[in-house]
C-alpha cells in the first residue's frame, strides 16, 4: 500500500465510473436531485426485485456507494 492509497481523496475518486454517472445526475445536482435519483434507481435494481440477477445486485451496491458519498457534504467535496 502506498501513501496515495491512504489518501481518502484518492480512494473516493479512483473508483471507476463517475458517481454522478452512476446516479444519472449532473455534477451540479442538488441534494434533493441525488435523493430522488437514488430512490428511483434503488427500487429498480434492488436485489429483492431481481433475485436471480447478479448484475442488478452489483449495480445496487454501486448506487448505494454513490449515494453515500454524494449525499454527504464532506465526502462530496472531497470527491469533487
Domains counted in the coordinates: how many?
1
Strand content: under 5%
Largest sheet: none
Give the CATH topology.
Helix Hairpins
Radius of gyration using CA atoms only: 14 Å
Distance between the termini: 23 Å
Figure out the total of helices: 5
CATH architecture assignment name: Orthogonal Bundle
Oligomer: single chain
Helical fraction equals 55-70%
CATH top level? Mainly Alpha
Shape: elongated
Give the uncertain stretches in residue-range form. 1-5
InterPro entries: DnaJ_C_subfamily_member5, DnaJ_domain, DnaJ_domain_CS, J_dom_sf
Membrane topology: Lipid-anchor
Subcellular location: Membrane
Keywords: Chaperone, Lipoprotein, Membrane, Palmitate
Report on this structure.
It is found in: Membrane. This protein has 5 helices and no strands. The protein is an all-alpha fold and 80 residues long. The protein has one domain (4-79): Orthogonal Bundle (Helix Hairpins), CATH 1.10.287.110. Helix 3 runs antiparallel to helix 4 (54-70). It is elongated, with a radius of gyration of 14 Å. The two termini are 23 Å apart.
Amino acid at each position: 500500500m502506498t501513501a496515495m492509497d491512504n489518501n481518502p481523496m484518492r480512494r473516493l475518486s479512483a473508483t471507476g465510473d463517475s458517481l454522478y454517472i452512476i446516479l444519472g445526475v449532473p455534477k451540479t445536482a442538488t441534494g434533493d436531485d441525488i435523493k430522488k435519483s437514488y430512490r428511483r434507481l434503488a427500487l429498480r435494481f434492488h436485489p429483492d426485485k431481481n433475485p436471480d440477477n447478479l448484475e442488478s445486485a452489483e449495480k445496487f451496491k454501486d448506487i448505494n456507494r454513490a449515494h453515500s458519498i454524494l449525499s454527504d457534504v464532506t465526502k462530496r467535496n472531497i470527491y469533487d
